[in-house]
Amino acid sequence: MDLGALFKGRSKPPILAALIVVLLCGSLSYWQWQRAQQKHVLQHKIEIEKSLGVANEQQVTSQPLTQYVNAEVSITGSFVGDAVWYLDNQVVKGRVGFDVIGIIKISETDEYLAVNLGFVPQQASRVPTVYSLPSGSVSLPVYIKSGASKRFTLAKSAAEEATKQSVIQYIDVDYLSAESGKPLLPLIAYMTKNRLAGTEPHYQPIVMSPQKHEAYALQWLLIALAAVVIGWKLSKKENKNV
Predict the structure, then answer these.
(1) Which residues, at least 6 apart from 71, have a Cβ–Cβ distance to it below 8 Å?
(2) Per-residue pLDDT tens for 198-231?
(3) 140: number of CA atoms within 13 Å, CB side?
(4) Within 13 Å of residue 143, how many CA atoms lie on the same side as its CB?
(5) Measured between alpha carbons, how far is 205 from 4 in angstroms, rounded to an integer?
(6) CB count, 10 Å around CB of 88?
(7) CA-CA distance, 145 to 78, in Å (whole number)?
(8) 224 Cβ contact partners less than 8 Å away, ≥ 6 residues apart
(9) Is the whole-model pTM more than 0.90?
């Protein structure tokens, strides 16, 4: 095919603009498609874990806890003193508040793990409801995630503002380790069932379904195709006006 003849008599700026839109939308479509495939894999793994039931303490301690990333397990241990933080900007069932973050020392391994214990509502002037960690040994069903859970935020550090309560903007394992003086595992655990009075667990492993990611992928692809058609028509129209 003679590409020169195909584009002869057409203005180049609309075609170039359309090409830029196609490249951008194509990249976003591919990214959403990848996210959909990742969610399919994670969803399948969660379904398998649910069919097998929550792993018991013996199963967990027989191998490193890092082997249970993206899985629900049961851990037994005791909380570290007054090591409590409040994760800001949480909304649960229309209520604004904080998630309570604590540190648990796992009984069988003496390892320290950061645990999100769930939601507490805010009081006046955006002050969290103070939560007292239970004393003694506790057994918790938790979902294990890897690494720091930094969501979209303008905060430059986990604790951007000095407050009376230890309010943080995102979960940073290194920050929590430095503040508590405990060597934390590079993991974050989320309590999945309400086993402690005063908090409300609400963590969901999959917030956006793989089907929704696939719909977004198709949406970006259609926008790219529309850009091709519009750019092609504009290039011809502009040329007629020259």
Answers:
(1) 45, 49, 55, 143, 144
(2) 899 898 776 677 888 889 899 999 999 999 888 8
(3) 31
(4) 16
(5) 52
(6) 22
(7) 20
(8) 21, 22, 25, 26, 29
(9) no
